[in-house]
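== Folding the chain ==

***
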Amino acid sequence: MNILIAAAGSRGDIAPYTGLGAALRRAGHDVALAAPEPFADLVARAGLDFRPLPGRPEAHGDVGDRRALMRSAAAFVTELGQGFADAVTDDTDLLLLSATTAPLGWHLTEATGTASLGVYLQPTAPTGDFPPVVTGARSLGRLGNRAAGRFALRMADRVFAPATAALRRRLGLPPLTPSAARRRQEAANWPVLHGFSTAVVPRPSDWRDGLQVVGTWWPHVDESEQLPADLEDFLAAGPPPVVVGFGSMAGSEGERLSELAVAALRRAGLRGILQNGSAGLAATGDDLLTVGDLPHALLFPRVAAVVHHAGAGTSAAALRAGVPAVPVPVAADQPFWAGRLAALGAATAPIPFKELTAQRLGDALRDAVRDGTYARAAATAARHMAGEDAAARTLQAVERLAQRPSGASVTGNGAASNRR
């Protein structure tokens, strides 16, 4: 089959699909990954065809300003929608849609008859088990959690409304609100695979049919890839260090965070690796090393602990490596994942980014490294994750779709229109 994976967002929103796409390609499918232009090289290194999507989401600016975040998200989605249809070619047999691209992709499937499947990195369907992941709120009880989940979906619908209206006009489709499109998919039990471990989030029992948790999709890492020589030398020169990085977060706070991280490492008596990321972390010293972008799968198993922003992918990578974490959530779904790590016992209590100090970070690092219960809990989760093969389960779902009779719809609208 000709498969197009469509994903948008920051690096953590794209990288997991490179591993999934590579697995599908090894199984004999032709796979392209549509993503914003900055990730073209990331996609190419996985051996996948690249299709550019418009829009480049910036790191979140003032992470405490929810209204500003909503405006930024709406602007990004509107730009994304303007060019989304161009990524889908007439020979596309199957669309794999992320949580960000699905509200746009549904309209393409309606217009073209192309089959589609959700491949989400976060749980978005309302459930009584936990509140919506984007709120970072405490549990409101089962009824309250479900109500909050429905409200979160309505807020997302508002963000997508201008983009979907413009896209439907371009495709020659009658008007349909994002809420109506979503309800249509839910009523048809549109299939969604969730790419996270059941060790972290078990499948809620109150989810509808068609929603599965398959395990984590890992970013593609070439078999020949190795850590840089200077990093190998640093690792060999002393006890396992701590990695400190904030991914695509905190783009304007590199100097402050670097000083804070160094002070925290000194307080805990630990060596450190600063991963520069969007913040531009950097420091020098005999017990410090600054590195750029490196595969977590190669680096994390070699360290004593990881300080990170609790993005879904980084959180999973630390667990997979069996190392404890000190989560410093910044925005969006990060407080949710930070809370999950702490509940597993594999991480210290989350330190909200706005409350981060050298003292709090240093004390948390000392606990994470010296209290063996954190490492043991992480190792237990790692063993669970090793038994999950998310790529294989996704391949099974894809091949089930391939066996459907020609023209059968799995898009949730009950119709397979002619291709553009």
Notes: The radius of gyration is 21 Å.
